[in-house]
Write a structure and sequence with these properties.
about 300 residues; mainly alpha; three-stranded antiparallel sheet; globular
């Protein structure tokens, strides 16, 4: 089928199918890309143009049109990336003889680092759940696992029972792109998970709804990412009066505290499951005070040997 001369909706459907099957993008990203490219195609239809008649000037004009809506830079960058990926797909599949986005520069974004929680704040968070209750045991295991392994929330809720090996305190995690990584779990976190497995999970487990999920909701089903975000926010507000804390904030604290403790950047990259080291460098920055301490301690003339 020649997608250029077919219905634009069919071209969009083929693109989304490609992203799902070959690039293994998350459902959230697929929804965002479908919306972004769908809005662009509606704009093209209003201009009464075909996809094969578009050039870089038209696409730049569309991006200029979007700028009037006061979108965040990150949103504009995602929309640009979606349109770029759509035309790359059409060009690689030989539905277009030339690629009109080749002359369109990617939108620049400002990468903002999330709040870094102090170790005392993390300690207060981890101590917040009531370990005498089944939900408290679950929540303590969740918080200890998030901080102990630096997991993405999607990775955490995707864990099954066999992912945790109590004999060697290790987690088998399936990350982005279905890539597997084996992560060590500290003794406190491993103990919290074991306590939950032999106590809280048995009480939460439903005789009607059997599931292999490691972390269960109060009905015995798999816990959702939204539920984990809400419980993190609730415990952090209660423990330290800090709002806006998410599982991603805990992931950032995990990486930052490792670096402050002297961990190698490439080791942190492996633990986080980052493909590019540059992502880790931005995501796991050292505080200025810690950077100065490292300099004084490590440089021959830093004064650390005085």
């Amino acid at each position: 089928m020649n997608l250029i001369h077919a219905d634009k909706d069919k071209a969009l459907d083929s693109f989304i199918t490609y992203l799902r099957a070959e690039r293994n993008l998350s459902p959230h990203t697929l929804r965002a890309y479908r919306g972004d490219v769908g809005n662009f195609l509606a704009y093209v239809s209003r201009a009464k143009l075909g996809l094969d008649s578009l050039d870089h000037r038209f696409i730049r004009g569309y991006l200029a049109y979007l700028s009037h809506f006061n979108l965040a830079r990150s949103s504009l960058a995602r929309k640009t990336a979606a349109i770029r990926a759509f035309f790359d797909f059409l060009h690689r599949r030989h539905h277009l003889s030339s690629n009109p986005v080749a002359l369109v520069s990617p939108a620049k974004t400002i990468r903002r680092l999330p709040k870094v929680l102090k170790r005392s704040e993390i300690a207060a968070l981890l101590a917040a759940p009531d370990a005498e209750t089944s939900l408290g045991q679950r929540d303590q295991a969740i918080l200890e696992t998030l901080y102990g392994a630096g997991l993405r929330v999607s990775e955490l809720v995707g864990l099954d029972l066999e992912a945790f090996d109590p004999q060697i305190s290790e987690l088998r995690v399936i990350g982005k792109g279905d890539k597997e990584r084996l992560l060590p779990l500290n003794s406190i976190a491993a103990a919290a998970v074991s306590t939950y497995l032999h106590g809280g999970r048995e009480q939460l487990r439903s005789s009607v709804q059997a599931t292999s999920a490691l972390f269960l909701n109060n009905r015995g089903g798999r816990l959702t990412a939204g539920s984990v975000r809400r419980l993190v926010h609730r415990y952090m507000s209660r423990a330290a009066g800090i709002a806006g804390v998410t599982p991603h904030t805990i992931r950032h604290a995990f990486a930052t505290h490792l670096l402050e403790g002297g961990a190698d950047l490439r080791a942190v990259q492996e633990l986080l499951g980052h493909v590019d080291l540059s992502t880790t460098q931005i995501y796991t920055h050292l505080s200025k005070s810690e950077l100065r301490k490292t300099y004084v301690r490590a440089h021959p003339r830093g004064g650390g040997d005085r």
